[in-house]
């Protein structure tokens, strides 16, 4: 829906007329300049053998060496691989389950039960990540509730986060616990917006539950699903490091170490500032590309996107 | 009589000089010094900073310096340190493990973070200088290859303080089963089997964070068991050649042993456990009967804890195992007098160099040393026949504090800092017969011959070394875990060696060798 | 809509599954709550689910609050939430208002500035040095000012402002009102639901935050609650870390302290929860960001 283009007002007139408006924006621009654009200049660290005592201008220039080192590293594939795998698993599980949940709740539309279902399922979303991870560590640790349950099924009772192959399920499922309810809300809202007369017509025609699902429900919420999906795809190289850092340890790095946690560790713990900045920069650029791609795709599919 | 007047002049000068030296403390001008450190685990949840403890207050009073502390939480030490460096604004004094900091102390001097202390020490640190002169081997340790002093070190003042870890076993179970304290690997296998079969222990040998079963985590790389086969889990020196234990062929036999033990159910199935709580639970429920632990934190702690669970339980130290009975263990835990912990360096940008140096030097004086180790006379200790004896407040604290925590209120002997740890601290803290014996038993090794000193690789080698070793140590600890669990086969040991070669371990060994040669020439 | 027998059975099945799921969602929280109120000695050896407190004891809480940083953490978090959220809403409102005025030519440029900032970042160290450089280090302001605006929220609010008819604007201007007045007296009240949602978002961010607090605040007494909880819950430090600790009692209490910490870390959210519920739908929709 494009608005008709008005004739452009000449600058002088514009500045005079909107002086106070622009003044309102001044603190905002200042804020962006100081806290976003000034630090951007620091990205030059990625091309230097940075040392804080010599500063940005005094540290020796090494060009693309850090990037090459990263691509050459024994663990390059592991880190990028983990990032992608965790993202795809998240897409497969954390994306689809809220939809299924919303559909289920929608089937029980009438009654206080769905209200209760929503309330309870959404609550974990508001619990802080630190607490969530604390619970996870406790429950999967030796003697923990979940751990013990698996012991009764034959598991050997060791701390589950010490097993690299268990990290991803723990990471994903705890994410489901925390966010499924909240993520489902948008689908529930979309479902409620479906015209009820469609269903009435269908039931008159004798359509059963599954037919209703595939012929009416899903097509109606498809636009919502596709926008959400595409935006998620745009973020596949962007696994946030906070939860990873809270749950990972050297024993499970094999499956838990992702790009963002690697950047953090190299930068802040190993003092390899330039190298860490380079990997971070690499990640930023890839993310930017994916985001733009996803945005374009989303606009094509449903006329709506992030920008 | 020119000579006489000259003589009397110099005698007069001397007479005037000596009292002047004794009036250094409290420091003139009451300087304010900033001090960065990580919180001591023994007090970090009770005090916001060292300044609030009785120790801190007394320290400031005695030296006359006012200290402005910046205390980093223990679990954020590296991050906080990194951020401080990144900002370029360092406090006057920085207490950190400079020896093991990435790049080595020389790098930080060269890059302009901290001061090379040689001249300053000569002028203003008579106490430390005297100590180092009297202990030339220690002197070598606290310098860099280039001969620079970089910080005021934490030193262990005697052999008695350098050994405190080794295998422990439940004596009451041994007695019950008619077994002797195990000495050889064969003995151990028999004992663990007996624990499993006759005492119902599901994890006869418990593994825990104190033992560090992989070079990447924990503080100590325990030589127990692996040492019996003539290898170690970390670096060592043999006949002038630097070696990396996990790369040596003897390491295979060690992997085989543990893999077999695991299959037989003699090991705690939580081999990668990093939780003291779970280990304690194993002992409390009678599921385990042996492990590798420390004198106070292991034997002392367990024997106290078990009193409520099973009053008969008694943990004692077992010697480091050997292959053939009668052999002396080749390797054992042995801390060097200087390990680099909590060394205090001085910022290159400080305006209070003399005050800082003098302040830190006080800890090495007679008075200061007593204070850092034992605290305040009358409150935390009393001189009994010339022997500083901790009070009951410390040893049997009424507020349920542990001995280490109680000491930390008044002194620093129970952790580290810029002073020389006094042997008499350990003599009192290791207060049961079992604990005292453990030190003697565990000291009976040849480790002193093989211990790798604190070498620092050359600057251009350091980043290569760091990159190689971070990948190598991850691989080694993962391989150990996998082998013991059975997912990696011991027969494929050559493949494991191949991978290590691919990870450039030989390059790392060469770098270490160069560093070692440079060290011996110091 | 009448349901056949099979349909009713299907509905029942769905209801059963949902109930199961909801119990599974609730259980961890109940477990923690009951465990925190259990006697430590009984808790130590206990295996399996906990459906009621084992014995009754508040020792975990007593020991927890002996840590002076728990209380200071709560206070700091409160300050951050109140101060930070109001400042953020203020700044976001300013920015969104201006950006919504498409007739002004410069707003296109402003939009670009805003969007580009979202796509690219200089990394943690430069950001840290900047914040330090402007003098905010070791002050709670370091968690308020540099984090004033989340660009996505800005876009949401801009969209809301764009929904206000331009005629309201014009009549106010004719009456001589300046932009500042229009924004805060006319426009803002009209988008209160959106403001409420953004308040929720910003407040949640402040409540959950721990990482940047660890970077910018060196004094532990300034640390917000979640950062304090991190050392308790994740790093396993509950005061028993003393190498050579011979205090078996403390070891037992460690577990209880952890559970009490989890409860305290969740309590404020639980208390506000009923109040928050009405904003769920708007919040979730806003999160989808439609243009």
Describe the structure.
The complex is a heterotrimer of chains A (307), B (522) and C (291). Helices cover 71% and strands 0% of the residues of chain A. The mean pLDDT of chain A is 83. Chain A is mainly α and 307 residues long. Chain A starts with 10 loop residues before the first helix and ends in a 5-residue tail after the last helix. The longest helix of chain A is centred in the last third of the chain and has 30 residues. The radius of gyration of chain A is 25 Å and the shape is flat. Chain A has 16 helices and no strands. Chain B has a four-stranded mixed sheet with strand order 2-1-3-10. In chain B, helix 10 runs parallel beside helix 20 and helix 12 runs antiparallel to helix 18. The longest helix of chain B is centred in the C-terminal third of the chain and has 27 residues. Chain B is globular, with a radius of gyration of 25 Å. Chain C is built from 14 helices and no strands. In chain C, helix 4 runs antiparallel to helix 10. About 3% of the residues of chain C have low confidence. Chains A and B meet through helix 15 of A and helix 3 and helix 20 of B.
Quick overview of this protein structure:
Chain A is mainly α and 307 residues long. Chain A is built from 16 helices and no strands. Chain A starts with 10 loop residues before the first helix and ends in a 5-residue tail after the last helix.
Please outline the helices and strands.
The complex is a heterotrimer of chains A (307), B (522) and C (291).
Chain A: H1 11-17, H2 19-41, H3 55-58, H4 65-72, H5 76-93, H6 96-107, H7 112-122, H8 129-140, H9 145-151, H10 164-192, H11 196-204, H12 209-233, H13 241-247, H14 253-256, H15 259-269, H16 273-302
Helix pairs in contact in A: 4-16, 5-10, 6-10, 7-10, 8-13, 10-12, 12-16, 13-15, 15-16
Chain B: H1 2-22, E1 32-38, H2 54-63, E2 66-72, H3 77-87, E3 93-96, H4 105-110, H5 118-124, H6 126-134, H7 136-142, E4 155-156, E5 165-170, H8 171-177, H9 185-198, E6 235-238, E7 241-244, H10 250-263, H11 276-284, E8 290-294, H12 295-309, E9 315-317, E10 343-346, H13 353-361, H14 366-374, E11 381-384, E12 387-390, H15 392-395, H16 403-410, E13 420-421, H17 423-429, H18 433-443, H19 447-450, H20 459-485, H21 493-502, H22 505-520
Parallel strand pairs in B: 1-2, 1-3, 4-13
Antiparallel strand pairs in B: 3-10, 5-8, 5-9, 6-7, 11-12
Helix pairs in contact in B: 10-20, 12-18, 20-22
Chain C: H1 5-36, H2 40-45, H3 59-66, H4 68-100, H5 106-119, H6 124-133, H7 151-162, H8 166-174, H9 179-190, H10 192-208, H11 211-216, H12 225-233, H13 248-276, H14 280-288
